[in-house]
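We treat protein structure as text, and this decision shapes the records that our systems exchange. The tokens are whole numbers drawn from a learned vocabulary of local backbone shapes. Below, we set out a record of this kind in full and without editing:
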Amino acid sequence: MSDERPPALIMQDEWRRPAVRFGFGGAQVLLLALLIVIGLGPILWLLKSAITPTNDTITHPMGLFPHGAAWSNLREAWVNVHVGHYFWNTIVVALGSWLCQIVVATTGGYALSVLRPSYAKLINGLLLATLFVPAIVLLVPLYIEVVRPPIVHHSFIDTYWAVWLPAGASAFNVVLVTRFCDNLPREIFEAARIDGAGPFTLFWKIVLPLSKPILGVVSVFAVLASWKDFLWPLLVLTDPNKQPLSVRLPTIQSQTELGVFLAAMFIACLVPVAGFLIFQRSFLRSNGLGGAIKG
């Protein structure tokens, strides 16, 4: 116990006192419990309310199944309210947005960091400048571009391309991958070029395998951002049969009872929560994110 180093805010002599030691430890436990309640409390309440009858949720919002559980809420939300259909729409939107962002981020980061053309610094500066532009300012010009594309001359309204293509134009992802590629050892690229590897081989067989950590980080950001996006899909997907859950939930709220609506909200939260639980160790604690940010 004598070798235990005290916290930096407490002097060595004070840390040896039992009252200070147990008081500080108790404060840490209390703070941890408070963070758990604040973080997990809403999710656990939503899980309970999703399988609780509507009357019990209204009269006893904090009660633990005073009149039993109502598992029929989940079935009614999935079948009768067609949450399953909107859930599939959300998956399609998220996967398409993820693919577009991965393609743009990896190719852009590879070109700016590894190929390094003469205008790379200019492009990097422009990308960083766009990060300071509020997204709401770009809403009208982006909508006009989707309605009247300059090259295709065919409106993308009510097609998933109207969501996928703007999602791919993420300057943040390109900057993130560029900073990660800047930290990759240059000797590997030089050796590959000496062996006759071209730009595509260098990208496919060397850069992509080494970039798995940062690709995981970009994937998590892309899927979560697409899953919770509301305003843009509402504007460009006017057909209810193509809208994702984030857009349909307000309509579901006005057409169903509270218990079924909470069940639909719980189903919508499954993918983000499951994704965090599955990939937190691989991506949030990986050296790839730290190296990219430090760069």
